What does this fold into?
Amino acid sequence: MSRPNVFEFKSYKPYILAHLDALPNLGRGQRKHLADAVGCQTPFITHVLNGDYHFSLEQAEAATRWMGLSESEAAFFLLLVMRDRSGSSPLTMFLTRQIDERLERELSIKKKVKITKSLDLEAQVTYYSHWLYAAVHMALLIPELRTIAALERHFSVPSVQLLSVLNFLSEHKLIESSKNTYRVLQPMLHLPRGSKVLSLHHTQWRLKAIEASQLNESTNMHYSVVMSLSQDAYDQIRAKLARFIEEVADTVKPSADEKLACLCLDLFET
It folds into this structure.
């Protein structure tokens, strides 16, 4: 069982319990090891996890090392401890804002997919104005689609339109041409959250998703659901989806370039 994601938790005690449950044999005997790590007796661990006792910040920091948390995970965990220990509403509210800000940073898509290159605003407007720019950009990673003729057959668009897209990609050093074939120089781009064309980008690919849903291809997946849920559940789902994006990136990165696909993901309040 994989280690739970601390960023999906609202309190530090449930996270420790989930961490213990994820250990071999459901963590049997591990409370003593945790007690040794934080410098206390095993019964105190039980009182903390099942009662009103709390770790001191020093004990909590030692626990993060015992659980093998990264620096960012440990910082988030300690914020949870401080909020749970808080004795006043103003302090609780302050720590909640700190937690929300750190969570927002962790959920940043740019951080999850580890992309650093962005186009300038004028180029963004062009690149994201039509789905074909990104589609051709990614298609050129596939060996069988690196000529204009192959792209024309695959996308069923006129060669003059393809040439316009290819010239743009070349001008912005995203691809280069050699002997009537093209290769990708920069495979991934990031569209900053504050970009004025972000909505246009999402719209272009969701229109393609609608188009694809009408084809009823068995290899495609389309799922929509409207649900009633708690704020805590909503936040957990949001964190899980952000983690899923990271897992998708990790899966795609080492894979062979064999086919072109699009993943659209939405979670929003109605």
